[in-house]
Amino acid sequence: MESARCKAFLAAVEAGSFSKAAEVLNYTPSGVSQLVNALENELGFSLLRRNKKGVIPTENGEKMLPAVREFLLQENRIYQLAAEMNGRLIGSITIAAYSSIATHWLPSVIRAFQEDYPQIQIKLMEGIRQKVTKWLDEKIADVAFLSYKDPMPYDWIPLAEDQMLAVLPKTHPLAKEASYPLQNCEYERFIMPALGRDVDVVALLQENNVKPNIQFSTLENFAAMAMIEQGLGMSIMNELITRKWQCDVAKLPLTPPQQITLGIALPALENASPTVKRFVKYAVDRLTC
């Protein structure tokens, strides 16, 4: 199986059309189409549905995507190993991360890494836990930065504990207290981030048998904080996500105290490419000191 055909198929799926895939690969659209056709002929079934708007994967195409990504990852790993043996580091890294980590931790790590390895391409993808783990499972991402949850199906490297906070309007009766009783979430106008699917917050509430009075949901925590600032309700967030945002809100530790563990997850550190291993080392050295 030729890797060029696999790259053309993957690029077409990710770009949504042969013309956009051609721009990414520096081919002509007809060249991309011919490569995908050749792969389909080799496999014996269609991988893409073509229409006037572009292309989308067929059911068989969807099933083939993880294997194609794995094939290309292994090819890339071979080249990276050979380069490492020759004293060079090449390749690319795709990182999936919580927005809090992508905002407050990773920029300094990426800067330091790029200063030493400017030839390495880095792609950073932000999302909630469900998206981050999906990108890791589908081999779209090489490494992920997120919180620990049992069961942990990946190799795990803990980095730091992050305190969970109650975020309240400044006018809230408890805004100047030393802490916020978690049980009170049952009586407040609760704003749930991540469209009601914030895994860390949901788990925290369930573990403490608290059923929040959810009035609003947002995609991003920043929108939730802006709503809190306007007195529309309160929420629970990890401390890291609340940093540096200019919202006039009160942030209190919880009673009982709650925290999450943030760290690095990847399918298998031992089998990771030299480039990924080197980046992980940079991250650990800079985020655990």
Mean pLDDT equals 90
Computed CA radius of gyration, to the nearest angstrom: 23 Å
What form results from the Cα inertia axes?
A: elongated
- Percent strand equals 15-25%
Unreliable segments (pLDDT under 50, ≥5 consecutive)? Answer: none
Domain HTH lysR-type: 1-58
InterPro entries: HTH-type_LysR_regulators, LysR_HTH_N, LysR_subst-bd, WH-like_DNA-bd_sf, WH_DNA-bd_sf
Keywords: DNA-binding, Transcription, Transcription regulation
Organism: uncultured Sporomusa sp
Written description of the protein model:
This protein is α/β, with parallel strands linked by helices. Helices cover 42% and strands 24% of the residues. The strands form 3 sheets. Strands 3, 4, 5, 6, 7, 10, 11 and 12 form an 8-stranded mixed β-sheet that branches. Strands 1-2 form a two-stranded antiparallel sheet. Helix 8 links the parallel strand 8 (190-192) and strand 9 (214-217). The longest helix is centred in the N-terminal third of the chain and has 27 residues, at 59-85. The model has no long low-confidence stretch (mean pLDDT 90). This is HTH lysR-type domain-containing protein. InterPro entries: HTH-type_LysR_regulators, LysR_HTH_N, LysR_subst-bd, WH-like_DNA-bd_sf, WH_DNA-bd_sf. Keywords: DNA-binding, Transcription, Transcription regulation. Belongs to the LysR transcriptional regulatory family.
